Amino acid sequence: MSVSISLKEMILMKAEARGFSLLPRQPVSSLLSGRHASRLRGRGLTFEELRHYHPGDDVRTIDWKATARLRSTHVRSYSEERERPVIIVVDQRSSMFFGSRRAFKSVVAAELAALGAWRSLEAGDRVGGIVFNENEVVEIRPHRSRTRVLRLFHEIVKMNQQLASDQPAAGTTTLNDALEKALHVAKHDCLVVLISDLDGADAETRRLSTLIAARNDMLVAAVYDPLGASLCGAPGMVAVDRGSIWEIPEGGLFQSQFRQAFQDRVDEWQKIFRNLKVPVMPISTSVSAGKQVLSLLGHRTTAK
Predict the structure, then answer these.
(1) Cα–Cα distance between 21 and 6 in angstroms, integer?
(2) DSSP labels for 49-92?
(3) Which residues contact 50 (CB under 8 A, 6 or more apart)?
(4) Taking Cα atoms as reference points, which of 39, 48, 107, 116 lies closest to residue 85?
(5) Helix, strand or coil for residue 283?
(6) Topology of the domain covering 7-33+83-296
(7) How confident is the prediction for the chain on average, in pLDDT?
(8) Residue from 149, 196, 155 nearest 175 by CA
(9) Cα dist from 251 to 208, 225, 232, whole Å
(10) Per-residue pLDDT reduced to its tens digit, 155-171
(11) Is 46 helix (H, G, I), strand (E, B) or coil?
(12) What secondary structure does DSSP assign to 172-237, as a single string?
């Protein structure tokens, strides 16, 4: 069971950051492909020139005002921007310090951040991030460099290892505080990747996500633990939630109600993000983060 992650482990994950893409061209089975309701728009377009129409040109690129003024058909030519800012928002609050199989949610969030950062850098994008816990929100401005990626990793590792220390989370920073920061950083045409268990998500979370998604691409990696989705009671078993200690009741009724409450919340937020055309990747702590990303983004291995 991985309780914390090291900088070396995040660096080594570069070898796993292949076989998937965060750009618009996706395998048909990918969560981000055009066959799904949610999809990424990708990098922006840069205007290059106004030129004469040639047979085969897309008629949607005709500039009708220029055509009328110049009395011959002209089209506007664009090229895709070579890079775009990728903002990775990483949750390292105390709610993420939980796990029953393979790794804690906080570790899985760090693994996902490493995969996304390395893949984006390899694709030529600028990488930055926002890392937060109850005590602080740290912003790393996007830049196309390995040094900037390592700085992002350093902040993630620092907060991740603080969770395993004996120091209690004394602050009051919320998920919405991090999204507010992301809204100010991601002005337009960015890719904002939120990696969180969505603990504390509310109407304000929805409002902020709406504003971010209106001007940018957005992708949510919702991290969960199987035990957190299906909690089973046993004689004398207790649970701790935000400082409150309570005994878990025995019996199947409690278990079924707990599972239903969890599923209802998942369905609610999937619907909210679907309406915003924001893809949601459910990521379990029980399976390798890399394998899940490859599966969700349509990777297919070739038989030998």
Answers:
(1) 25
(2) EEEE--TTS-GGGB-HHHHHHHTS-EEEEEEE-S--EEEEEEE-
(3) 63, 66, 74, 75, 76, 77
(4) 116
(5) strand
(6) Rossmann fold (3.40.50)
(7) 86
(8) 196
(9) 40, 21, 9
(10) 999 999 999 887 777 89
(11) strand
(12) ---HHHHHHHHHHH--SS-EEEEEE--TT--HHHHHHHHHHHHHSEEEEEEEE-HHHHS----TT-
Of 294, 105, 279, 91, the C-alpha closest to 177 is 91
Tokens coding 7: 């900088």
43 and 84 Cβ atoms separated by less than 8 Å: yes
Please write the tens of the pLDDT for every residue from 185-230.
Answer: 999 989 999 999 999 999 999 999 999 999 999 999 999 999 876 6
Q: Answer whether 293's CB lies under 8 Å from 20's CB.
A: yes
Cβ within 8 Å of residue 162, ≥6 positions away: 92, 133
3-state secondary structure of 244: strand
Residue 292 tokens, joined: 């899940």
Q: Per residue in 229-255, is it b (16+ CB within 10 Å) or e — as a string?
A: eebebeeeeeeeeeeeeeebeeeeeeb
Q: What is the pTM of this model?
A: 0.80
With CA atoms as reference, report the closest residue to 20 among 120, 90, 107: 120
Count of residues making up the chain: 304
Q: How far apart are CA 127 and CA 252, in angstroms?
A: 47
Domain boundaries, the chain: 7-33+83-296, 45-80
Beta bridge partners of 239: 246
